Automatic annotation (TrEMBL):
PANTHER family: NAD(P)-BINDING DOMAIN-CONTAINING PROTEIN-RELATED, PROTEIN YEEZ
Protein name: Oxidoreductase
Organism: Mycobacterium dioxanotrophicus
Domain NAD-dependent epimerase/dehydratase: 3-230
Record-linked InterPro entries: Epimerase_deHydtase (IPR001509), NAD(P)-bd_dom_sf (IPR036291), NAD(P)-dependent_oxidoreduct (IPR051783)
């Protein structure tokens, strides 16, 4: 197939483009700045010669990019933790979904793969997240935008469009050129702090290479609408500290800060954010996800598509190695 990839200069899109190319398909990229292809996905050995310049919010440029393609992987999205960016996130991500997913359906592409997020299904009152849960979403701008797009994508599925949806957790692993993604930045912050706070808090870790393998496996036409969780391994704070200590050789402490205190700190820092001279990963929504995210049932992708999810120790080790290499 000839597959259009949006977000291909990012972490998830870059690894997915590599998996797609390695599976024998050809990749076209939709990019705003073509030079970024060479500092990101091009560093993985992917042919980046086929690209279209455009933006997911520009319908005409999206349709031009889709022309001549058989399938699409839509991983581009605006991600921000600043509450002041909420309206922009909502409008950008929704416009992107309408243009990319809707445009692909109009042109008859099959399959149409949409990279969602476990935040679209986040519900602290369930024990396990699975792909058939109703849309719930977090209270932050990003969670709301992913839930809004999820409703649109599921509406397309209900109408029979061959939309395939994946729900990644915290995507980590080796960098895509100079790209790590938000979860990789979280690892860097934990290493800098030397401690991981929380009691029942946890990270849900999925390797970018495994998520990419799932996306490549979905490139089958005629299969209709499908949804798959890819939340990864749920790693509680105490085990996370031990794993990071093992892979870094530097002692990281698990600090039993009450989860309610972390969420309260997030609320305070959200209000103080505009006045702080630095960015902080401690936000109300971030702490809600961190302290209340359920485990993810990824067994359907294992059963249906033969996907294997590697040991989180390997993922963390490769993430740390990449961070150290880029810091030199």
């Amino acid at each position: 197939m000839r597959v259009l990839v949006t977000g291909g200069t990012g972490f998830v899109g870059g690894w997915s483009a590599k998996a797609i190319a390695d599976a024998g398909h050809s990749v076209r990229f939709l990019v705003r700045k073509p030079e970024r292809l060479h500092t990101s996905v091009g560093q993985l050995g992917v042919d980046v010669s086929d690209y279209a310049v455009g933006d997911i919010t520009d319908r005409d440029s999206v349709l031009r990019a889709l022309d001549g393609c058989d399938a699409v992987l839509h991983s581009a999205a605006l991600v921000a933790t600043d509450p002041g960016q909420t309206d922009r996130m909502l409008s950008t991500n929704m416009a992107g979904a309408r243009n990319v997913l809707g445009g692909a359906a109009e042109l008859g592409l099959d399959p149409i793969i949409h990279v969602s997020s476990i935040t679209a299904l986040f519900n602290p009152d369930v024990d396990t997240l699975h792909a058939d849960l109703p849309v719930f979403g977090g209270t932050d701008g990003y969670g709301r935008s992913k839930a809004q797009v999820e409703i649109y994508a599921r509406g397309m599925q209900d109408g029979g469009a061959p939309v395939n949806i994946t729900y990644p957790g915290m995507v980590m692993g080796p960098p895509v050129g100079n790209q790590f993604g938000e979860a990789g930045e979280g690892v860097a912050a934990a290493l800098q702090l030397g401690a991981i706070p929380g009691r029942s808090a946890a990270w849900t870790i999925v390797d970018g290479r495994d998520l990419a393998a799932l996306h490549a496996a979905l490139l089958q036409s005629g299969r209709g609408p499908r949804r798959y969780m890819a939340g990864g391994h749920r790693i509680p704070v105490d085990r996370l500290a031990k794993l990071l200590t093992e892979v870094t050789g530097k002692t990281l402490l698990a600090v039993p800060v009450p989860d309610t205190m972390l969420r309260a700190a997030g609320q305070v820092l959200d209000r103080l954010g505009p006045f702080l001279p630095f960015d902080t990963p401690i936000t109300e929504a971030g702490m809600q996800y961190y302290t209340q995210m359920p485990a993810s049932d990824d067994s359907p992708s294992r059963r249906d598509l033969g996907i294997t999810y590697r040991d989180p120790r390997v993922t963390l080790a490769d993430t740390v190695t990449g961070l150290r290499r880029l810091a030199r």
